[in-house]
Amino acid sequence: MEITPDHLVLFRRGFVVLNATIVYTRVVMLVLVVVAWMATRARKSDPDAPRSGWEGALDGMVSLVRSQIQEISDREGVDEYLPFVGTLFLFIAVSNVMDIVPGWHAPTGSLSTTAALAICVAVGVPLFGIREAGLKAYLHHYLSPAFFMLPFHLASEISRTVALAVRLFGNIMSGSMIVALLLAIAPLFVPVIMQMLGLLIGLIQAYIFAVLAMVYIAATVHRQEERPQEQNQ
């Protein structure tokens, strides 16, 4: 039994190696692009055209993500965060939901994929903070309330990134292993129930990852907004 999709090599020729993580990641990206194109093609050619089922589903998903971002950030103008947080959620959700396809190996079951997603969050959070307050003001918080707090702030951000990657990887990998074991032990009804439970867990993990990313962004933005108020008091 393959523990992660990294161990499943689909193509090897010389130094070129394609494992399941690389291939299925590209498949998820292709699925998202095709669905987005199908949902928006009619609207681009005719702005007055009636909404299709694809467009309605995509609009509903975008509205749901936007409402969650507004609730977490406690502000109205959240469209600047929507592409980043929404893409994280959709990529993880589609990766996990496609687990119902026979032979599918969710790329989120690879630590390299979850680490890449966590690094995206680690890079995105300071970028939003810098855009909110500027580079100098953002970097100042690493030295607040005193300069010796710098290593503690850095350690906090590194541990946060590692926790994001390991949490998602552990939950997806363990769920896949449990289903595989049950298929070997009781190959009839129990695995079907576990498969449905696994899909639910996959969606929950996508939601948790996106929510945590937005929480980190909101905390950074609020911190930068509070600094001018403290300085004026």
Shape: globular
Spatial separation of the terminal alpha carbons: 62 Å
Give the overall average pLDDT.
Answer: 82
How many domains is the backbone divided into? 1
Low-confidence spans = none
Structural class: mainly alpha
* Number of beta strands: 2
The SSE string, one letter per element, is EEHHHHHHH
Strand order of the largest sheet: 1-2
Described by strand count, sense and barrel closure, the largest sheet is:
2 strands, antiparallel
Percentage of residues in helical conformation = over 70%
List the helices and strands and how they pair.
Blueprint: E1 9-13, E2 16-19, H1 20-45, H2 53-73, H3 82-97, H4 111-133, H5 135-140, H6 150-185, H7 189-232
Antiparallel strand pairs: 1-2
Helix pairs in contact: 1-2, 1-3, 2-7, 3-7, 4-6, 4-7, 6-7
